[in-house]
Amino acid sequence: MIEAVMIWNEPNNKSHWDFEIDPEWRMFSEMAIAAADAVAEVNPNLLRVFGGISPIDPNFIARMKSFGVLDHFDVVALHGFPLDWNHWPINEWPDRVREIQEVTELLLNCRSGFPRLVSPASVRKKFRSLACAEQLNC
User: Fold this and answer.
1) Which of 25, 46, 68, 105 is the most buried (most CB within 10 A)?
2) What percentage of the chain exceeds 90 in pLDDT?
3) Considering only CA atoms, which of 11, 34, 36 is closest in space to residue 21?
4) Total-model pTM
5) Is 24 exposed, middle or buried (CB count within 10 Å of its CB: 0-12, 13-18, 19+)?
C-alpha cells in the first residue's frame, strides 16, 4: 500500500536540478505544486512529501515557502549526510533539523500526528537517519 509520495529527490542539489536553467527554482516550484496537487486530486489521503533536500538549507526551504510550494505539501524531508560529504559531525543533526524547523512547521511534524519522516536511499543513510531522528524525541 502506498502511504506517501515524495516529490523530487534533493532538488537543491546540483546533481538533481539544473541551476543554470532555473537558478531561482521557479520552474521547479511550478512543477512541484502541480505534482502535489495532482497527487491530492487522485488520493487526498496520501502524504505529500517535499524533498528530501540535500544539502540541508533553510534558505532553500524559505524560498519554496515564499513561492507557495509548501502550502501544497504535508511534510518536508531531509537527506542529511553527517560524517560524509556534508562534513559535519553526527551530533550536529538536531541543530540542522532545527534550522529547517525555524523556517517551516512541516518538518518532522510529530505534533500533528505525522510520522517521523526519514527518506533513506541506502542502508547506510537509513541507519544514520534513524539514529539521528531518535535524538529528536518526536
Assistant:
1) 25
2) 37
3) 11
4) 0.77
5) exposed
Residue with cell 537527506: 79
Q: Are 92 and 130 in contact (CB under 8 A)?
A: no
CA atoms within 13 Å, Cβ hemisphere of 64: 27
Q: How many domains does the chain have?
A: 1
Torsion angle defined by CA atoms of residues 4, 6, 7 and 8, in that order, rounded to the nearest 10 degrees: -170
**Residues 108-124 as b or e (16 or more Cβ within 10 Å = b):** bbeeeebeebbbeeeee
Enter the C-alpha cell of residue 10: 534533493
Nine-digit cell at 53? 533536500
Q: What DSSP line would sit under 93-113, residue for residue?
A: HHHHHHHHHTT-S-BT-GGGT
